[in-house]
Amino acid sequence: MRTGSEKLWEYNSQDCCRTFEIWSAQQKVVDSMGLRRPHDMEMSLFYPVLRTMTKGCRVDEKLRTEMLDTLQAAEVAGQQWLEDVIGHPINIQSPKQVATFFYQEMGQAAYHNRKTGGVTTDDETLHKIGLREPLLWPIVQKMAEMRSLGVFTGTFLKSLTDPDGRLRCAYNIGGTTTFRFSSSENVWGNGTNLQNWSKGGGLLPNLRRVIVPDPGRTFFDIDLSSSDLRIVVWESNCARMKEWFHEGKDPYTEITRTYYKDSGITKLDPRRQLFKSFCHGTNYGGRAKNLAQRLGLGIAEAERVQAWYFSQFPEIRGWQERIIDAINRTSRVRNAFGFQRTFFDRVDDNVYREAFAWIGQSTTAICINLGYLNVDARLPDVDVLLQVHDSLAGQFPTSRPELADQIREECSIRIPYGDDPLIIPVGVKTSPKSWGDCE
What we know:
Layout: H1 4-32, H2 36-44, H3 46-55, E1 58-59, H4 61-86, H5 95-105, H6 123-132, H7 137-157, E2 170-172, E3 182-184, E4 211-212, E5 217-224, H8 227-236, H9 239-246, H10 251-260, H11 270-283, H12 288-295, H13 299-312, H14 314-330, E6 332-334, E7 340-342, H15 349-378, E8 383-387, E9 392-397, H16 403-410, E10 414-415, E11 422-423, E12 426-431
Antiparallel strand pairs: 1-4, 2-3, 5-9, 5-12, 6-7, 8-9, 10-11
């Protein structure tokens, strides 16, 4: 009779042999589909990411406790405010109770989930209700605020550290279709999704200040300047916006100035922020009606602005039409690196919008991941502690400030757009105090 140890070895041996046989067969498929480069890049991330997960992040426990106490007090005050205004207790985490309040007690027309057909009261829906009925806007705002407070306290500030006091997560390299990572608690049930740690705003604190460097180290945080817009501009070969970028100008500001015929508009002007949201949505296939609801515009006004936008930058509409044609013919879209996505759903406007967005998101994610590999291979004194979708964060010895420039250089990735390649400018912010204090 085989012992428990013998059974374990047999099981593990079969596991190794069978997975190796599967891997061998898969390699032929990878080559036949022209996916060798994506495959090899994804596989090469294994050890760098393992090092990041193993290292973990140091936590300022005193600050975390203070934040938790403050937010819990705000939750109590917010709940009392809601009950005083509504006139009875309500559990905002209960979709049924929230739906009863808005759709029955307040007589609002119900919104339904497109996929399930059931009524919905998610944040986007409540925002629409608030825009439609100004008297309900304060309640909508308070509920959204309370939901955020609940996430901050429950998901982030109460997340468990490992026995050594460090906070970790488990990254899934293949967790999304865009080559971004996803993250969750680690295999021991500790940690949390570190990619969603917010900078806060309003009542919400900057959670990133809880993550601090190790002694003698300085935290860094990189970001890619206007990556989504730059990629759309280079994909579409939009001459006018390319010129603005080459001149060091902000296209969103220039677009807003052009529309309003006001050269005094700056980045701080609220009209510029509105145009940024509108242009971003339009670039990714947003319809005027949906953009109007989201941004608080009239439908006729949104249609007029969208028509004007495409008249000014027809190359972007041409790029969208090429993507639509590719989806209709092959159900497939490809980015400048040669990575591709195949859509298996029924082709409709939603698929087109996903395809537009996939181009920018996947290209940005690949730039970040290539930078990740460069830093890990060439800068041994730098610890990459966090991969946050379109940015990297970590630490380096405070005695070596020149490493900030080297990180910038290693993360400046050439995107192969024919005779006019794109290198998205990389910003590197640093702080000896915390991730959230990087500036």
